[in-house]
Amino acid sequence: MKLAILSGILAPVFFSFILVLIPKNRKELFFPVAAFGSTIPVATAIYLLVFGTPDGTYKYVFELPWIKLYGINWVVGYDGISLTMILLTTLLVPLSILSSSSTLRQAKGFLISILILEASVIGVFTSADLLTFFLFFEAILVPMYFIIGIWGGENKKYATIKFIIYTVFGSIFMFAAIVIVGLLVVQQFGRLAFDFETVSNLVLSLEQQKILFLLFTFAFAVKVPIFPFHTWLPDAHVEAPTAGSILLAGVLLKLGAYGIIRISVPFFTDAFLEYRGYMATLGVVGIIYGAVVAIPQKDIKKLVAYSSVSHMGFIILGIASGTLIGMQGAVLQMLNHGITTGALFMLVGFLYDRRHTRDMTKFGGIKTVMPFYAAVFLIVSFASIGLPGLNGFVGEFMILIGSYSAYSIHAALAASGVVLAAIYMLWAYQKIFTGELKVESNHSLIDLNLREKLSIAPLILLMFTIGIYPYVIEKFIQVDVSNLVKVVELTLGGLR
Questions:
Q1: How much of the chain, in percent, has pLDDT values that exceed 90?
Q2: Domain boundaries defined on the chain
Q3: Which of 48-57, 158-167, 174-183, 422-431 has the lowest mean pLDDT?
Q4: Cβ contacts of residue 161 below 8 Å, gap of 6+?
Q5: Looking at residue 68, what is its pLDDT?
Q6: Whole-number mean pLDDT of the chain?
């Protein structure tokens, strides 16, 4: 089981080295090797799902010596929440590789960056130690820097620098918090340690909790991103290549929300209860702001980017509710958003490969030449809106129900985000697919090929599966979320 956990990290790293060794004149091997390397973590995740289903505690936690002089180890483990995120990551990485164009320039470097990114993300989700968590959290910046900075669009330098500045600035606060935690551990236990178990046993005053909560949560808020720390996201999405956008929206945005659930809420619960009202407010503002700004966009990729700001606001609202159904909905929506928005960026990439433009005004009526593509885009749009029977509905409905008991006005305002989502998504569909085929360049468009159909098919299947039978995912997270909510409720009861 330990080997299974580690293989999710080590396999992508190993195959990235294999790619380095492949000669440049053997370009035909690049994508198959990368694809095979990225599928091993999928098998690992399925194995953990079948044989190591979590029961509400961190499973198979073990330590690997790191800095022996100070007793610092790499602590690894997983629970239902982290396993769900690992499944999402291991699914989207091979699909993003498959959906990428085989004619991508400097394909070797691009694929190596993707594999290193996968290893780093899985490292975050399997870390049971603050220091290890931070190192993997920061390691993600390196491959993303190259993915956007080398293979991005015309304004890639600006987008890359903005992305790095925002995330590094946020991470400074997290590092400061980790240093403070280390000093408190030494003070209370006489040894240096950063593992979650030790940190959870710290006795902290309310003021100490507030400081640490704000430091950690600020770093996570930038990564989500929570309004008003969102401005880096549209630029990064617009300039990133298709695979980069899929992974950025599908996986990387979840790191911030995951950090809040994994660290901010359970370790500094008193502070969370003090500040959750502000979190709920920022979540609702993000929902409405992201949706309103998405409506007038002409660039379809920027529209999807602002929709992510809106959808991530729902997740923050669900976490802030502190209720069982609200938090379950938040975790489920983290998965759903990754599936749906990843699919949207994939579809946008398919169209861009054909026309080399994302301006919706340059399309119109293309359903006549791309009927299959139009049908798939409509399904994904409905999932993004939250149509019943598709995955987007389940998570957002649970969040609205769960948050209503704690913040009824916030929930009512958040519901308007569903209406606004229908406006901008259906409007975008109308601009691109309906009407007459007037633009001459669009007459030669061809429908999805086999590779593209295989790339999008698993995501469509999951949209229907989760939408019809959400318990297939809920059963893996309900115990862990219940334990988290119990901590919140006990703390709230103590305050009363």
A1: 49
A2: 1-266, 268-496
A3: 48-57
A4: none
A5: 64
A6: 87
Copy the structure tokens of residue 62: 């073990």
* Residues ≥6 apart with Cβ < 8 Å to 333: 311, 314, 315, 318, 392, 395, 396, 398, 399
